[in-house]
Specification:
about 280 residues; three-stranded antiparallel sheet
């Protein structure tokens, strides 16, 4: 937002200094702007369909959900979070970013998502959401999400590509080389790429301090930090799955009692166990 008395020259100088600071930081970390994930369109689509199965049992009805005990809608094949206008939370909101991404690819948005900027979730509670499930707007939204599975998969791969610099910046200096090495181990096969794409969509990059309990995170960064091996291929994916189980178990142990996250742990474990299946 422009300050009342600021000049465009001053703003331009501030932006340049900010850019130079970021460029200097990235140069110090010696990391690219993003990691290159070598997946064909067909491979990315297969990953998207697997994630659709994980999140929604592969159903169109599951593309619009609101879980009990949550304060946000979960939409699309990745159950992307969408907060209401006056309700925010500690978890990263991803659905508006998905909509912007799909729109940039030329897809026609449904009526519910039209508007200037990022549109807030129109339902303020789970009860309101369920009352609207069979309305024309909601049906149109589900059809839109069913028709854009490939673009949603592309969005998730794009998020993974941008995750590595964020994780290296957040990691302790002594851990950065190991994090990069473990990321490369897993990304070396389509099965490993599926594990990475699913997990970063499922539990985030692990860089937000709001996404931690008792100071401990459970995202992709924490899973990679828990790995120390060098074997590639199936062995790398098996170690990733073990580290993910440990991170998720720690999350449940550290979670506030009112969250009752024990109810979800068995499903989460089954999900990360699936990474090792060809």
């Amino acid at each position: 937002m422009d300050k009342v008395h600021s000049s465009r020259k001053q703003q331009g100088s501030a932006r340049l200094l900010g850019f130079l600071a970021i460029a200097s930081l990235l140069a110090g970390l010696a990391v690219p702007a993003f990691a290159v994930i070598n997946l064909s369109h067909a491979e990315a689509l297969r990953i998207g369909e697997k994630i659709w199965q994980n999140e929604c049992n592969g159903t169109i009805a599951g593309l619009t959900s609101w879980n009990e005990g949550e304060y946000f809608a979960s939409l699309g094949i990745g159950h992307f979070i969408w907060y209401a206008r006056d309700k925010r939370g500690p978890f990263e909101e991803s659905f508006p970013k998905l909509v912007s991404f799909i729109s940039s690819r030329g897809a026609k948005l449904p009526k519910l998502l039209l508007g200037a900027g990022e549109v807030p979730c129109p339902w303020n509670s789970r009860a309101e959401f369920f009352r609207a499930l069979q309305t024309p707007d909601m049906k149109q939204l589900r059809q839109f999400l069913a028709d854009t599975v490939d673009l949603q998969a592309e969005f998730m791969v794009n998020r993974l590509e941008k995750a590595l610099p964020k994780m290296l910046q957040e990691a302790a200096p002594a851990e950065r080389e190991n994090v990069r090495r473990q990321f490369d181990r897993i990304a070396g096969t389509p099965q490993g790429c599926y594990a990475l794409v699913d997990y970063v969509n499922f539990k985030g990059e692990g860089v937000l301090h709001t996404e931690r309990y008792r100071g401990q995170g459970w995202g992709l960064l924490q899973v990679l930090e828990g790995m120390r091996g060098s074997e590639t291929g199936q062995g790398a994916v098996e170690e990733f799955s073990r580290s993910a189980r440990a991170a998720l178990s720690r999350r449940v142990q550290n979670a506030p009692a009112e969250r009752n996250e024990t109810r979800w742990l068995s499903g989460w474990i089954r999900r990360v166990n699936s990474y090792t299946r060809q």
